[in-house]
Design a protein that fits this description.
By secondary structure, the chain is mainly alpha-helical. It is built from seven helices and two strands. The chain has a two-stranded antiparallel ribbon with strand order 1-2. Helix 5 crosses helix 6. The chain is globular, with a radius of gyration of 17 Å. About 20% of the residues are buried.
Length: about 170
């Protein structure tokens, strides 16, 4: 499950970087640094996924180097709200397929004081220990959404509809 998702994410991120240069447009933002922080461990440090990245997405491999040294970048525009789902829909779908079900099952198990949990991720059975930190992450995501002004929250919910990510807020 993890390897398949990694391979899909590499393809998705390659297409995102090809279209705009960065996750939310033509300049870097916190979303770039969040993805960069996770992807550097797989794409630069761990030899097996690093070889996969280099072989299947030289563009994304180069983006890691570029993101690592962003000094002197001249800021340009963010994506318009209307363009976000077209640009990031694939990535949100992958998150909804793999990470959202994990977060929900992990949270449920933690609230039931279980040490581990079983769920289905991407149509396959998944078993692992509970991660308390991800319970905090899910709470922070929900708090951030619930703290948004009503129109922004409505816009976000509309963007997430059909991605699988909407399960995080129901």
């Amino acid at each position: 499950v993890i390897e398949s998702s990694y391979e899909r994410v590499i393809g998705i991120m390659d297409r995102i970087i090809m279209r705009q240069g960065f996750v939310m447009g033509s300049r870097p933002g916190s979303s770039d640094f969040a993805i960069f922080g996770q992807l550097t461990q797989l794409g630069l440090v761990d030899p097996t996924p690093a070889r996969y990245l280099e072989r299947h997405s030289p563009r994304l491999r180069a983006w890691l180097d570029r993101a690592e040294d962003l000094s002197g970048l001249h800021a340009q525009d963010w994506l318009s709200r209307d363009a976000i789902i077209e640009h990031l829909g694939e990535l949100l779908g992958e998150i909804g397929r793999v990470y959202a079900p994990f977060l929900i099952a992990n949270e449920k198990a933690a609230h039931e004081s279980n040490e581990s949990f079983e769920t289905t991720i991407d149509g396959k059975p998944w078993v692992q220990p509970v991660f308390p930190y991800q319970v905090k992450c899910l709470a922070a995501i929900r708090h951030a959404r619930n703290s948004m002004p009503e129109q922004a929250r409505h816009d976000l919910d509309s963007m997430l509809t059909g991605t699988g990510c909407e399960m995080l807020f129901t």
